[in-house]
Amino acid sequence: MSTTNYPFGRTLYRPTEYEVATTAKQAKTKHPHAVRIIDEAQELVLSGALDYDTRAGSWICTTSIALNKHVTLGPKTCTCQFFRDRLLTLNGYPFCVHKIALMLLHRVLATHLRQRISGNVKFHAEAEHARSHANELLLFTPNGNAVAVFGSRTWRVPKDLCATRWSMQGTDFKSLTDMYAFSLWLAQAHPLPQDLLMPLLSTSNDPEDIFQSMKQQGYSDHAAAMATDAMVMDERTWHETYDPRHQNASQRRAA
Question: Which among 155, 206, 149 is positioned nearest to 6, based on CA atoms?
């Protein structure tokens, strides 16, 4: 899917200190031996060190502004020496401060994505509700494999924003490029009114909150129960979400 359908700017969404701190706290609780490097990753996210190289099609992390140095990131790779030396592993996977920073950013953006989805474009009432909240709410496309948005109330039809997929945590970005497209849109989107905010999947520890939130997004009891059973997206899931080999295997099982 093209990530240029929606006329947004070039500014990426900058997470708040609270959003990043809450997500980092979960990671530190799960991996107390990596507290120092998670703190460093938190600072990278807050400083705006993460960016997206549209020509290379990959995320980058600036390591030295003065020397114009950066590392290139993928869901399973980083070009830094720390990662290549496998000095830190989480759940059996190699990690570095840059990869952890990208994962923290992903968790924040994925939470916003799930909060913004209000229905499916194929249902007239849901589409009109999203149009009344133009540039605030998102709609699934008819096949459920992407989300679309009304840029203004004058638009007759919403435009595709980014491709999505199902993960154990609920709706997620199909690729890191789709995560970039969503970040561009979110940076200029209207804030959600308090009465439209749904429970935060990434911060709630109450299984009932997660289950009801998934139900509000139109998922079946079975799918909502699966998300409830996987309240915290761990490092293994992060790799599997963006590993084409895992996706192909899942498609074969589904067939």
Answer: 149
Q: How far apart are CA 88 and CA 97, in angstroms?
A: 9
Alpha-carbon 166 to chain mean position: 12
Listed by start position, the domains of the chain span 17-108, 110-254
State the residue for tokens 């915290």: 232
N-terminal to C-terminal alpha carbon distance within the chain: 23
β-partners of residue 185 are: none
pLDDT tens figures, 36-67: 999 999 999 999 999 999 888 899 998 865 55
Question: Of residues 35 and 216, which shows the higher confidence score?
Answer: 35
Query: Two tokens at 48?
Result: 């705006």
Residue 136 to residue 116: CA distance in whole angstroms: 7
Distance of alpha carbon 232 from alpha carbon 214, whole angstroms: 14
Measured CA to CA, the distance from residue 242 to residue 230 in angstroms comes to 17
Q: Which H or E run contains 166?
A: strand 159-167
Helix, strand or coil for residue 243? coil
- Over residues 108-128, the mean pLDDT reads 91
